[in-house]
Amino acid sequence: MSTARSRAILALCIALGAVLGVAGAGMWHARSDRAAMEQIVRDYAATHPDGGAAPSAALRSAVEAGWPGAVLGNPRGKVTLTEFTDYACGYCRGSVGDVAALIAASPDLRVVVRDLAVLTPQSEDAARMALAAARQGRYDAFHAAMFAAGNPTPATIAVAARAAELDRPRARRDAASPEVSAELARNLAFARQLGFTGTPGWMVGNAVFAGAVGEGELARAVAAARG
């Protein structure tokens, strides 16, 4: 589980998306009434405890589908682990090595990454560039480079884009597209349905859990899903 602040921020995003219908692009840039939003956070947190219930078959299928190209490991793997992540999340950064080790040990593992851009305005900027990178077949390279570069800023996003060898004019166009906006809104909606109130969040098989749980716990969940 991430910090209490990140849990509150995610709850705020979810609540604002439900109330205002603007769960996608630009939400964080439109903040105007901090006190009112903090009240939404408190109200939401009081009525939505941390999740963990098994997802329905339809929800699981939709979540596992992922954004084309936003996949690590074996794209045709028999077992799918889905990670909800934010490039500004230190716990997510700490989980990068765990996921890499798990992929190395599990040739049949497909890891779907869902960019949950909620912690900072730059989280969204980085997520947009990541989804644009996926359209160039460079998601894995950008994903690794972005976490290695540090917290998302215009400078670190540019560093990661260069490291991933993106066609940057094309990437900027794709990052600003309505399709990417819709995907970020979908990811937020899925997080809400799964009961996540922080990042990272995980789903594998019928198991849903949150936090930087470590390679061992992830491996056990994958083994259980494998059957």
What can you see in these coordinates?
The protein is of the alpha+beta class. It has a single domain, classed as Glutaredoxin (3-Layer(aba) Sandwich), CATH 3.40.30.10. Helix content is 57%, strand content 11%. It has ten helices and five strands; from the N terminus they run H-H-H-E-E-H-E-H-H-H-H-H-E-E-H. It has helices at 4-20, 34-47, 57-65, 90-105, 121-135, 139-149, 154-163, 168-175, 178-194, 215-226, and strands spanning 71-73, 79-85, 109-115, 201-204, 207-210. A five-stranded mixed beta sheet has the order 1-3-2-4-5, sandwiched between helices. A hairpin with a 2-residue loop joins strand 4 (201-204) and strand 5 (207-210). Helix 1 packs across helix 2 (34-47) and helix 6 (139-149) packs across helix 7 (154-163). It is globular, with a radius of gyration of 16 Å. The two termini are 26 Å apart.
CATH class descriptor name: Alpha Beta
Instruction: State the assembly state of the protein chains.
Output: single chain
Give start-end ranges of low-pLDDT stretches.
1-51
Class per helix and strand makeup: alpha+beta
The proportion of residues in beta strands is 5-15%
User: Looking at this structure, what is the CATH superfamily?
Assistant: Glutaredoxin
Number of helices: 10
What is the fold named in CATH at topology level? Glutaredoxin
Fraction in helix? 55-70%
Rounded average pLDDT? 82
- Structural shape: globular
Strand order of the largest sheet: 1-3-2-4-5
Instruction: Please give the radius of gyration in angstroms.
Output: 16 Å
Give the biggest beta sheet. Answer: 5 strands, mixed
Number of domains: 1
- CATH architecture verdict: 3-Layer(aba) Sandwich
Taken in chain order, the helices and strands follow as HHHEEHEHHHHHEEH
CA-to-CA gap between the ends? Answer: 26 Å
